[in-house]
What we know:
The protein is an alpha/beta fold. It has helices at 19-29, 49-53, 62-68, 81-88, 107-113, 146-156, 168-178, 180-197, 202-223, 227-234, 240-250, 253-277; strands spanning 12-15, 38-41, 57-59, 71-74, 97-100, 119-124, 134-140, 160-164. The protein has twelve helices and eight strands. Strands 3-2-1-4-5-6-7-8 form an eight-stranded mixed beta sheet, sandwiched between helices. The relative contact order is 0.12.
Amino acid sequence: MLQVKMEPQLKVGFIGAGNMAFGIAKGILSGDFIPGNIKVSAPSSRNLDKFEELGIAVTHSNVEVVCWSDVVFIAVKPHLIYVVLNEISRYVTDRHIVVSVAAGVTLAALEQLLPDSSVIIRLMPNLPCVVQEGALLFARGSHAKQEDANLLRSLLHRCGLVEEGPEDWIDIHTGLSGSGVAFVYLFAEALAEGAVKMGMPSALANTIASQTVLGAGRLLRDSGKHPAQLRSEVCTPGGTTIFGLHSLEQGGVRAATMSAVESATNRAKELGLKSTAMK
């Protein structure tokens, strides 16, 4: 795989300075990449300070970022994607790799707005990129080659898990992992509140709940076991865990979680259709 350290002059730009752009940028910088090779643009200065604190150059000019960069992350809201691409299209050349992080906006729609033969990759990361524990899935456009995918993997590998798949999986990944982070936070909050109800101080309950989620996630990832197997290993006949699981099942937690992923996935698809209609 091509490594970023083999491309010391590679320049990376971000159009958009929200949480996702910040998470990716911070993940990239956790490797050997230097802040001087990253530039970020946004229409206001509201979110730019945190990038400057990392030593990253900032600007209000999207065109400046494109002309300066080799890899350009388009990290704006879906309803802004067409405005931004119309602005920068004439400046995109065959040296660029354009990576869209706009939820729901298809590769076909992106390719229609950029010059012929543009190298485009659609990426869906999630917020834990900021602590190098993200889950990222990308799909290649019709002109993106294997070496482009390798370069992106190399650039993002310190952000967390990086996988490639067909575009149909991107919206599913949005529901599973992009939105799923918030679902986990809700569950962690509920765990802590249950402990508070039973008499534990709130601060300690929140600390233990976060460690419980972290430990369970790492064990699930590193053991390679199916979640059901790990769950059964925690249960003992007539023990505390099986009683607690019974309460969760009575509350419909499994069906509710599946429905949450389904709803978030469908919403990602709707956003894509809306942004296409606005073109």
